[in-house]
Design brief:
Blueprint lengths: L15 E2 L2 E2 L5 H8 L5 E7 L8 E7 L17 H14 L2 E7 L1 H7 L1 H14 L7 E5 L9 E5 L7 H24 L5 H4 L5 H10 L17
Parallel strand pairs: 3-6, 6-7
Antiparallel strand pairs: 1-2, 3-4, 4-5
Helix pairs in contact: 2-5, 3-4
């Protein structure tokens, strides 16, 4: 894949209300559409900071008149809220796709490249090919599609928020499955993050095959 970062020509300042910098949650999508990009995808990843499991990404294309009350950054939602939002996101979306990169590949190419690869795979897996992509963060994806990086995009763009929720729910389920296979580590509880319980389990039992062996907290016990 060729790394291409295409920015739209015009990006206006966010809309301000009563002196505050409050963006319309479809602000970035609308700016793309105003420039002729009709199908705009949002992409986000989850699991970047974990010590175990894959990094999971999702890409979502929402319709122009999309509305779903309560949708925001997945980290601001409860487990129950995220799970209740997923079926409605999937119902309304023009297309969505989930992709992942394994812990072995994370160790091989590093977590940043693995995160970008997972998001690129999710975008490329959409059954509706997007004309533009909104990417959470500040790193462009290695794809030849017009794109805009949006720092804290999961709380500023509904397309990215939808992707974050779908990716989070999917990855949590994967980690719960791993918990049944490796009950000593408590994956269902912490989802692979570096909690005190998780670090203690690694010290006592050593890493399992799904741990990221290049990460601090794991590599010392390989």
């Amino acid at each position: 894949m060729v790394r291409v970062h295409v920015q739209p020509v015009l990006w206006n300042e966010p809309v301000r209300h009563n002196g505050e910098d409050l963006e319309d949650a479809l602000y970035f999508e609308r700016l793309f559409r105003e420039q002729g990009f009709t199908d705009v995808a949002g992409a986000d990843e989850v699991g970047r900071g974990c010590l175990a499991g894959p990094v999971v990404a999702a890409a979502v294309i929402l319709p122009e008149k999309f509305h779903l009350s309560g949708l925001t950054d997945s980290k601001k939602l409860s487990i129950e809220q995220r799970q209740s939002l997923v079926p409605e996101i999937e119902r309304q979306a023009l297309s969505f796709c989930i992709a992942s990169v394994s812990n072995e590949e994370i160790d091989r190419i590093n977590i940043l490249q693995a995160s970008l690869r997972a998001m690129a795979l999710a975008v490329e897996g959409l059954c509706v090919r997007p004309q533009a992509v909104l990417v959470d963060g500040n790193q462009p994806l290695p794809i030849s599609i017009a794109q805009k990086t949006v720092v804290k995009g999961d709380s500023r763009s509904l397309s990215i928020a939808a992707a974050s929720v779908i990716a989070k729910v999917h990855r949590d389920r994967l980690m719960e499955e791993l918990d049944s296979m490796y009950p000593d580590y408590g994956f269902a509880r912490h989802k692979g993050y570096a909690t005190a319980v998780h670090l203690k389990a690694i010290r006592e039992h050593g890493p399992c095959p799904h741990h990221r062996r290049t990460f601090k907290g794991v590599r010392e016990y390989v």
